[in-house]
């Protein structure tokens, strides 16, 4: 029972893989033992290579090409052959998560155990995704292959004929003593033209990191040692393999990087547009769509074209990728323009929905600048006990009362008005009535009789503090306030029909109801 459950579990796990390949087997099949084609062996001889020399494979998505390199007796790699990729899926960019149909990008190690002689796609080898870099970046996925036929769901499909030859070349390299070969996967060839063209792509930072490894290989023709430092690849010699985050870089590699960066800058200065290629679902080399090879690169391929088998999503291949212009995220030049819309203008652009331009503020005078630079006096609750105006500034509008108008200095005030009555212990919890507000901020009376009455009036209630009444007495409702009664200074009752002037109280405050 347990072997049956284990076998069923393996089938389920493999069915979740990107290409749903069959299980691995060391036994192999007859097609896995096919020899290297004689034409390819002859090609090796012309380049001083042997079938059992170590190999290295590179893949390029945009160009849909896969290169097989062999290391010669001098220790340097040389290009043996380039194969057209029949199908790859997704977009340019790395694989992020399981099921996104993305073919991986990065540096991977292929051992003999990753070769599958019993693949459901004729023959295959596992790319090794996810590697240490992918796991450090939180990427998921499994069973991403290089295999036969022409169907891809995150894999590189090469046709049965092409994978048979690649598989035989790798098998002989393992037989010659190579423990594992490096598989480099790129979005495109790392040229200055491509870097300038895709400079605003969201993956440009990752691609520039890949270019560091590409520069090392192309200049030195040696397999770069690959390490992971944080979430970045690190390339170099033995120090990179030992885990150094800043390995020594060969001067030849530095010179190539500087040359490419200068060329990119020149291309951008000449007006090379920043674009992004958007595919329906991956691509295919033109070799499989044209009546004859576009170049002599694949002239040695058998004619007629190899049997492609099942082609995944042929309707997506029928549509060419769209090239979309990508503007930089920050546009300091465009946003700095101060242009107003003209009447009768056409359809608004994206800039029309930005914040409207405003006229620049006038240059302040020296006095205004000094006044603005002077620190403002702090206003605190503690200072409100001795200054009623500061209390009004802090809490005057909190309770719905109208803000008190700033006092206006009269032209000539009597001596009795120069000393305002003291206000003590005003509780901030009680609302301030307008009658009290008027007494705290008296408006000078214009009538001469009122002024005389204020001078001759005895100092009785005017000097008495009002804080106790304000703290305990709630705010009066509208219409309940009555004008206070006042006796004349000589002690006689006022005559009927005559207006009585209230001492030490403004006329406006006596007739205005409290809120």
UniProtKB/TrEMBL annotation:
Active site, per annotation: 147, 155
Q: Does the keyword Transferase apply?
A: yes
Q: Which residues form the L,D-TPase catalytic domain?
A: 55-183
UniProt keywords (A-Z) are: Cell shape, Cell wall biogenesis/degradation, Peptidoglycan synthesis, Transferase
Basic and acidic residues composition bias: residue spans: 470-504
| GO BP annotation list | cell wall organization; peptidoglycan biosynthetic process; regulation of cell shape
Q: Which CDD domains match?
A: YkuD_like (cd16913)
- A GO molecular-function annotation: transferase activity
Family label? Belongs to the YkuD family.
Full protein name: L,D-TPase catalytic domain-containing protein
- Species whose genome carries this gene: Methylobacterium variabile
